[in-house]
Structures are given as structure tokens and as C-alpha cells.
Amino acid sequence: MIRHTLPMQREDLAKFDVPDTPGVYFFLRGGDLLYIGKATSLHDRVRSYFSKDLAVARSSAIAAMIERADEVRFVKTDSVLEALILEANLIKKHQPPYNTDERDNKSFNYLVITRESFPRIITIRGRELFDPTVKKDFVVKHLFGPFPQGGSLKEALKIVRKIFPYRDTCIPESGKPCFNAQIGLCPGVCSGTCSRLDYAHNVRNITDLFKGNFHGLKKRLIREMRTAADAERFEEATTLRRQVLALEHIRDVSLIKDESRVAGGGSIRIEGYDVAHTAGKETVGVMTVVDGGEAEKGQYRKFTIRTAGNDDPAALAEMLERRLAHTEWPYPKLIVVDGGITQLRRAQAVLKKVGVSIPVVGVVKNDRHKPERLIGDIRAIQLYEKDILLVNAEAHRFSIEWHRTRLRNRLV
After folding, report:
1. Using an 8 Å Cβ cutoff, are 255 and 156 in contact?
2. What predicted TM-score, i.e. pTM, was given to this entire model?
3. Rounded to the nearest 10 degrees, how much is the dihedral formed by the CA atoms of 90, 94, 99, 104?
4. 32-39 and 23-29: which strand pairing?
5. For residue range 337-355, what is the model confidence (pLDDT) as tens digits?
6. How far lies 327's CA from each of 98, 316, 322, 409, in Å?
7. How buried is 232 (Cβ within 10 angstroms: 0-12 exposed, 13-18 middle, 19+ buried)?
């Protein structure tokens, strides 16, 4: 770990030898840890905290953290995957205040290895994992996280699964290979071609990986590879050699892409709203969620509109008022509404009425109902245009889908 005293001014950054490599960075004040983050490029990531738009790109809390911080430290890693795992382990160990305060900690992602004969490797939101009222079909054996960016964790698991195939949903020893087994992402616990002992070995490798023991894992695999070769178990030795080479040459392309979105301010919760009806009949509304640049379909919500018929702005207002009453749902950093200035102003009025300060963007459509322009909060539009369009498209699709389902059920 390398330490520098950092005056929190952008023009002074050239004085500090922050490398252009993957790693984990730490902001501190008086030696007390304030915040931990991962980076594809430590140099570029630390520099991004001195953007004039930091409060909009991240949050007012992170902007306040930078004003408090008087020191930055960092640890270099060999890959972004290692940085991602190290970040999660250090957040869990130290619980820095600005990591837990930046957003609802229960919305963070966790990796679970289940306690079963053939353990599953699954991801789950903290709010589901720690809620005793949510029924779970597993017992936790190993728990890793929190991982602040769900998209990064999913991309990391795609990399890991190609190196160490694992089971997630298939039924062990059912006699039929699942789809993932057919493409090499499940070792064959379903078809019976992978024994419990062999699978336990794979799970141990994944466990070591997410404990951050990269170098120890590679040394053990090399030792096992040589033992297998000496015993003329050449197929096993070839598999182990492939795994060692994969660990030494991890392709972080997808993680790099995800990190660049985070650096640009794309790792926030955005909610989209849309209304659907037929000439004022069967009026429904929906809420969709994009978090960290990806659709979170498990958090979508449906609303049957009670007070408004053929009046989209009124239906939107009712839906927003009911949604904002659910304080157990994490509030978004941005709200996106389908429509023009009327819908935009109605949404702003609802937020003002309930005393909530959240920027709003409206998606104006052309006569073919395709996005024509964005109106509302300019900073949000500049930073999150892609996510705004995604959450709006999802809201439009979801509202029409549910409206058609209600009509079909009504006619049956």
C-alpha cells in the first residue's frame, strides 16, 4: 500500500504518482478511511473525482467526501477482476462510511455459495438476502460482497465461469445435461458426468478466487497440474494448464467497459414511468428501474390507476404519489417520464408536494412514438442519456405488455 498526502484540488494531481493500472483506491481524512473504490486506471479514476459535475455524476455525499478527504492511497492489482474482488472484501472488512451511505446498502449485490452436495453459485440483492420475510431455497456456506456495481459482478462471473464451470439452477444427477452444460459453463453435475469430488474441487477454486487469494490459487493449480502430468493423467493436466493460463491472462474487456460507465457517472438508480390505456379504459401505469446501466426487472412495479381515466398527466401523478409513499423502496437519483412538458411539470409538482428533491427528465416522442428529444434536467441528460432511453423503452414495453394482458383477461 502506497500513501500520499493529497490536497483535494484537481490542479495538484500531477504531483502524485497514481499509476495507470487496475487497482483499489482509498480516500482518507486524518488516517480514517472514508471511501473505497476499484478502478481500471487508478490515475484516471482518482482524477474523475475532481470533475465540476461530481455531485451530479455521483452524489452530493461523494462530493462532500472529497471536500473532507486529505489523503489518497491505492493498491495495484494485476487485473480489473482482482480489483473488483479486493474492493468487495475491503468494503466488507472496513465498512467505510461513504460506501454505506452512498446508496441503500441493502441494494448492493452479494455472491452466495450454497451449502449443498453440489453447491450453487448465485447472486442476490442484499435486501432479499437479509430480509427474514423473504423465503430462500438455499443455505449460505460462503458469502462474498457487497459488490457496489451489480453489472461488474455479473461480468466477473461470466469470466470466472469460463475458467471454473459451476452449477446455478440445474438439478444434480438428473441424467440430462442442462443448457449451460452443453456450452461448457456447467461441469455436468446435471448429467452425472461430474462427480461430487471433482465439483467440490471447482467450488474450492471459486471460493479461493473470491477470497482474493489469486496468487495462492495459481500456485496450487500449477502444483496440481505437475502432479497430474507426472501421473500421466494428461487430460486433467491439460484442463489445469488451461485454467492457469486463463487466470494469468484474464480478459477484462467487459469489466473495463463497465468501469468506464461508472467513471462517467453511469452507476446510479434511474426509474422510468409510463401509462397505458384504451380510450381511457383499463388505465394502468408502470415503474421500471435501471441501476448501474442495466435493467433491474425484479424491481419493476405495476399500478392500476384508480382516479384518472383518459388523462395521462393525472395518471402519472397518481402513480408517482403512490410510489413515493413506499419509503421502503430506495429512492432513485433520477426520474424519467414518458411525455412532454406537461408530464414533466406534473412529475416535478408531485415531487415538490411530498418534499422530495429528485431531477426529472421527459422523453418526447414523435408521431411514430419514437424518442425525438429529451427535456428537463440538462446535467442528467448529458450524463445518462443512454440509461434514460433504456429505462423509457422498458417502461413503454412493460406498460403495453401489462395492459394487453389485462385486456385479454377481461375478454376471457
Report:
1. yes
2. 0.60
3. 110
4. antiparallel
5. 998 999 999 999 999 988 8
6. 21, 18, 10, 32
7. exposed
